[in-house]
UniProtKB/TrEMBL annotation:
Species assigned in the record: Sporosarcina aquimarina
Record flagged with keyword GTP-binding: no
D-isomer specific 2-hydroxyacid dehydrogenase catalytic domain: residues covered: 6-302
Keywords attached to this entry: NAD, Oxidoreductase
TM region positions: none
Keyword NAD annotated: yes
Alphabetized PANTHER family for the sequence: 2-HACID_DH_C DOMAIN-CONTAINING PROTEIN, D-ISOMER SPECIFIC 2-HYDROXYACID DEHYDROGENASE NAD-BINDING DOMAIN-CONTAINING PROTEIN
Domain D-isomer specific 2-hydroxyacid dehydrogenase NAD-binding per the UniProt entry, residue ranges: 103-276
Protein name: D-2-hydroxyacid dehydrogenase
Membership in a protein family: Belongs to the D-isomer specific 2-hydroxyacid dehydrogenase family.
InterPro entries named in the record: D-isomer_2_OHA_DH_cat_dom, D-isomer_DH_NAD-bd, NAD(P)-bd_dom_sf
Amino acid sequence: MTNVLLTFPIKERFRNALKDQFPKVNFDFSDTIEGADEKEVEILVTYGSDLTEKVLDGLTELKWVMVASAGVDQMPLAGLGERGILVTNVSGIHKTPMAESILAHILSLNRALPIIQEQQKQKIWEKMKSNELKGSTALILGPGSIGGEVGRLLQAFGVNTIGCSRSGNRHDGMHEDILFNEIENTLPRADYVISVLPSTSETRWLLDESHFEKMKKTAVFMNFGRGDLVRERVVVHALQNEQIAHAVLDVFEQEPLPSDSPLWELSNCTVSPHVSALSAKYVERALEIFKENLEMWLSGDEGYKNVIETDRGY
């Protein structure tokens, strides 16, 4: 039998569904990677962070790692690649909750909801300024599955969307597409700069001081991809000096965000504790992709979904 270890907890109904659909597979639902080196694990289903180089060395029978998240930057990709181990993820399942989170923050800021809530606490009846989305422009760094859904929703509100990627190829949900090296020339046009980029050698520290200097003073910067897109000190400087109007950050250079970080205290910064992808449907969607790939694995087919190129990190 094929030995599969899941290192995160799933509900009983999901466990039963897996066992019913795959009676010839031995599922280990112990919810931990500890002791995995003694279990002859062939397939590992993990969120990723528990698979270290040391653990990988002990998994001598491992042939496939199914990562139940989109990011794989914390994993020993070099070692996985050297051993020819298949790596897949659940790219695509985050697009709905993340796009809705991003849209919620944009609408909240535009319609002054934080101010309304604060005034309610203080029992203040006072008008405040608010804006509308129609006619604005959003520069979306990473116009893939998530970025495309963000673009589609924004277009419904009359927003002009510009996708920015390594290839510059045409993407769904974008009115226009540009290359990474065209960012600086495009920033002066953007009312919203939204990043959903993964962490790769090409995206790490992609933005610096020069980029924020070119943004509109009324612009909103939003990072929902990875915290190593830009140094925290760069964002802090831009906010303190009002180079931009606001920042909404769901990911950070260091997580959890240290209590002494200036970002906590800045009134023009929204700190979100890496929660934009959370959804009650998360595990269900992740397991659907796993089951589809497991069917292929058992039948000898190789048309797997969401295969990660370990040398590129995505």
